[in-house]
Write a structure and sequence with these properties.
74% helix; two-stranded antiparallel sheet; mainly alpha; 10 helices; 3% strand
């Protein structure tokens, strides 16, 4: 399992690094969109495994159209930033209305609210939270490089998982939340945070120009906050998997599981990181 996870991680990082090196924004968008839509589909499959009804096709169509709309907005930005926010809001509204309309034409109405709620949650939980990556790819700030900022986010978030695994395997004695994730320990949790802070500070020193907004105390704060939120995101997905009695969200990535297993923590750290850049750094 560890060998498969290591090989899969190396392949994914190599693919991402190659696209970043070539500044292949369209490829990055496609990669992120595929991961998001597969993760959304896995969420719906887990709900169906419990015997619950969801509108998979409607939810995935809403997610795909939403992601495409955001990408086109980034390719052809409106004259004013507020217009971009307006397009994003309109795309979300269209997705919600489309899913609600699907229920209107459904013959069985005995679980209408639950069906619509689960479908909408899948739409908001994955595609909507994932748009922070598209925003980072096209980040037009006076300082820093958008693609490198996105890569920084991925590295710091995933280093938390790696650090927690290694430290937990080495020193782990005290279970963290066994009823949700039996293998997580407090020692691994602390090790993941320290590893994340070290990676954040190290990257800020190694790439000062590309990561210009992340300097000094910002590198320490982001390393701490992103690692904490990463753990929350991972535990949140564990709750969803345990609720559906699933070990993994899927089996598309050897050693890792499903797409949702891969991006669970990024769904939380992405919006937080983007908001931090806009409001603080």
């Amino acid at each position: 399992m560890f060998r498969s996870r290591l090989i899969s991680s190396i392949c994914l990082i190599a693919l991402l690094a190659g696209m970043v090196w070539q500044e292949y924004r369209s490829g990055l968008f496609l990669m992120v969109s595929i991961l998001a839509l597969v993760a959304q589909w896995e969420f719906y499959i887990m709900q169906e495994a419990k015997g619950l009804k969801v509108f998979k096709k409607a939810g995935l169509m809403a997610g795909a159209v939403f992601l495409l709309t955001i990408y086109l907005t980034l390719l052809f930005p409106p004259a004013e930033p507020r217009h971009t926010q307006g397009v994003e809001t309109f795309a979300i509204l269209c997705g919600i209305l489309f899913i609600l309309s699907r229920q209107v034409f459904e013959k069985a109405q005995n679980t209408a609210v639950l069906t619509v709620a689960l479908t909408l949650f899948g739409f908001i939980y994955v595609p909507y939270l994932f748009i922070s990556f598209q925003n980072l790819f096209e980040q037009a700030t006076q300082e820093g490089d958008g693609i490198m900022l996105a890569l920084y986010l991925v590295v710091v978030t995933k280093v938390t998982d790696i650090g927690a695994y290694l430290w937990g395997s080495w020193l782990g004695r005290h279970k963290m939340i066994p009823q949700i994730s039996p293998k997580k320990t407090w020692e691994g949790f602390a090790g993941g945070i320290l590893t994340s802070i070290g990676a954040s500070v190290g990257l800020s020193l190694l790439l000062p120009e590309q990561l210009a907004p992340i300097t000094g105390i910002h590198a320490v704060i982001l390393g701490l906050v992103l690692s904490l939120v990463s753990v929350v995101g991972d535990l949140a997905e564990s709750v969803i998997k345990r609720d559906s009695q699933s070990k993994d969200s899927g089996a598309v990535i050897p050693g890792i599981g499903g797409s949702l297993d891969l991006v669970d923590s990024l769904l939380y750290t992405g919006p937080l990181f983007y908001s931090y850049l806009i409001l603080v750094a």
